[in-house]
Design goal:
This protein is an alpha/beta fold. The protein has eleven helices and 13 strands. It folds into two domains: 28-184 and 347-362, Rossmann fold (3-Layer(aba) Sandwich); 186-343, Aspartate/ornithine carbamoyltransferase (Rossmann fold, 3-Layer(aba) Sandwich), CATH 3.40.50. The chain is 31% helix and 16% strand.
Length: 374
């Protein structure tokens, strides 16, 4: 009897492995979770029609994606993580403006890395102080100028209203890279890319062995944009959660709109200020450092730190959009609870997938990419 060769090996010979991903492997002595991207696309081709539907659109909040688009973008990211595509120059000739009016480590550099690795060009504005804003120029006027200078704008700003303001005149697609206490929809995409690689069953509606997870949120989704976007995207995948618990010292950490969204999704949820009582029941813990409160910010309450003494479930995963302060002890970095580095590293590939789709460059991908549709 002959043994069939696993699909994984066949695919490796058909597609050139991505040389950039070697550096993402954790050190030898680490148990850090770095799920294999092939978990997400084995036995399933990309749906060109769904991805094509994103062409020319803006992504300002999580509601700007559908669940099907999120799954397809994550599958696409997984293929990009596993495959060398630079030689086909997918973004050749495209100019992307990264306009960061608020500080960033990960979002701006991962977007710029994504663009450069796909052979696009970047006009990088890393600081508001080097723009006309310093002299009182309006975002609406800046939007009008950007129409002439780039094919797509990625903007971060301290003000929630900034996305509406720039869109008064902007006619090229906008990606919101964080607007005050508003949203951070590409962070949510990076978060869910890490989760789907960790457990691809989360994206399979009919799977009999589907997980029923208890999701714990440490923080205030109503004033933490990354937490809010993560929670909103998690509602797309609500059938995987038996319960959502928000741990916060605030009486109303969600706000009425978000609470209504969770109720509509039919998921049991609870708000508590007692982490110790529930932490050992949590399967996925999402946390963040700071809540934006107008011009100032508030750090996570000292009761909600995770450290070596926290009684986590054996298989629980910790997610954090980073940057962290002392709420997440570095002793977790080399443990199997660490999904946060996977979120940060995978961000380059989901952002590549999003840019190729928004800029309608699927046709520039190498011919051996597994994609179906015209
Ligand atoms: N996750 C995130 O938004 O990080 P930065 O603030 O460094 O961009």
């Amino acid at each position: 009897m002959t043994t069939q060769k696993p699909a994984k090996e066949t695919r490796r010979t058909a597609m050139e492995p991505n040389s950039h991903t070697e550096a993402l492997k954790p050190p030898e002595d680490s148990h850090t979770l770095r799920p294999d991207p092939e978990n997400l696309f084995t036995n399933s081709k990309l749906n060109r029609e769904i991805l094509r539907g994103l062409a020319g659109r803006s992504i300002v909040e999580v509601r700007d994606y559908t669940k099907e688009e999120v799954i397809e973008l994550c599958k696409f990211a997984a293929i990009l993580e596993a495959t060398e595509v630079a030689s086909s120059h997918p973004l050749d000739g495209k100019i992307i403006i990264t306009a960061f009016f608020e500080a960033s480590t990960r979002t701006r550099t991962s977007f710029e890395s994504a663009i450069l690795r796909l052979d696009g060009k970047v006009i990088s504005i890393p600081d508001e102080q080097i723009t006309g804003v310093k002299k009182g120029e309006s975002l609406a006027d800046i939007g009008e100028m950007f129409n002439a200078y780039g094919d797509l704008v990625i903007m971060r700003h301290t003000e929630t209203s900034s996305t509406d303001e720039i869109r008064k005149n902007l006619r090229v697609p906008l990606i919101n890279a964080g607007n005050g206490s508003g949203e951070h929809p590409t962070q949510a995409l990076a978060d869910w890319y890490a989760l789907l690689k960790w457990n691809p069953l989360l994206a399979s509606p009919g799977a009999s062995d589907k997980p029923k997870l208890h999701l714990g949120i440490l923080g205030t989704p109503g004033s933490m944009r990354a937490v809010k976007s993560f929670l909103l995207m998690s509602l797309f995948f609500g059938e995987n959660f038996r319960k959502v618990t928000v741990v916060s010292e605030m009486a109303d950490p969600l706000g009425p709109e978000l609470e209504e969204e969770i109720r509509k999704a039919g998921i049991e949820f609870e708000v508590t200020n007692d982490l110790q009582t529930i932490v050992s029941d949590l399967d996925v813990i999402y946390m963040n450092s700071i809540a934006l409160l107008g011009d100032s910010y508030k750090t996570l309450d000292s009761r909600y730190k995770l450290d070596q003494n926290t009684p986590l479930k054996k298989d629980a995963v910790i997610m954090h959009p980073l940057a962290r302060l002392d709420e997440l002890d570095t002793s977790f970095d080399k443990t199997c609870h660490n999904l946060y580095f996977s979120q940060a590293h995978g961000a380059v590939f989901v952002r590549q997938a999003l840019l190729v789709s928004l800029l309608d460059r699927l046709d520039r991908l190498p011919k051996n990419i597994p994609i179906k549709g015209n």
